[in-house]
Amino acid sequence: MKIAIPTYRRYHQLGEKTLNFLHTMKGFTHSDITIFVADDYEYLRYVSLYPDYHIVIGEKGIKNARNFIMKYYDKDEYIVSLDDDIECLESMGDDYSDLFVRGERELRKTGLTLWGVNPVKNTFFMQKQKYTSTSLKFCIGQMFGFINKKYKLTVEVKEDYEFCILNYMNYGGILRFNQVAVKSKMYASGGVGSKKDRWEVNETATAYLREMYPEYCVIVRGGDQFAELRLSHFHRFSEGHYLS
Description:
Blueprint: E1 2-6, H1 11-22, E2 33-37, H2 40-49, E3 54-57, H3 62-72, E4 78-82, E5 88-91, H4 99-110, E6 114-118, H5 123-126, E7 132-133, E8 143-147, H6 159-171, E9 175-183, H7 195-212, E10 217-221, E11 227-231
Parallel strand pairs: 1-2, 1-4, 2-3, 6-9
Antiparallel strand pairs: 4-8, 5-9, 6-8, 7-9, 10-11
């Protein structure tokens, strides 16, 4: 198991949140953790704060960072990717300290290549869902585990939607732990940027993904008219793909 953390300008948050969170999880050692930074300046900042961690200069931007991570690790290696501002897991009361181990075990058993968690941190909503599912449901990029197939992502935002679609298309399902979610602060300073900063690139990415994968997603808009994708979780493959 490898733990990959792409980070940008969250120098203290990384330690206070994600690295602290990892102390509560099982199945890996300190040497399995790699922090991926954007450039030489970022490297010097992070290495001064976290000298005991393996830090690698990757590329700036979340799409580029994720592509770099997939190139960095071997094909078919199991990787858990974490954002740099994760505080804890929220669940229906079960102990998920072995979630990373559970995820790998289930992927190897089923032949699927991606697991994730519920993007909605709402216990009322979560408790109405099955413990796990393998249909095309969104696995948010804050935290997911995958068997590295070295995909190349193409959009600057919504790259986690594209990653879900690619894994689903090629392996017939996605494993999602529906009764667990990640606590973090969406659109916080640092990282990818604010929601306002994302507006134009979000519009472009959403339209592109809809055009590229019309069978797998639709565009929806909230009250603020911010474009979002909805994955077609009722989609079914023809015979030959794994689904339950």
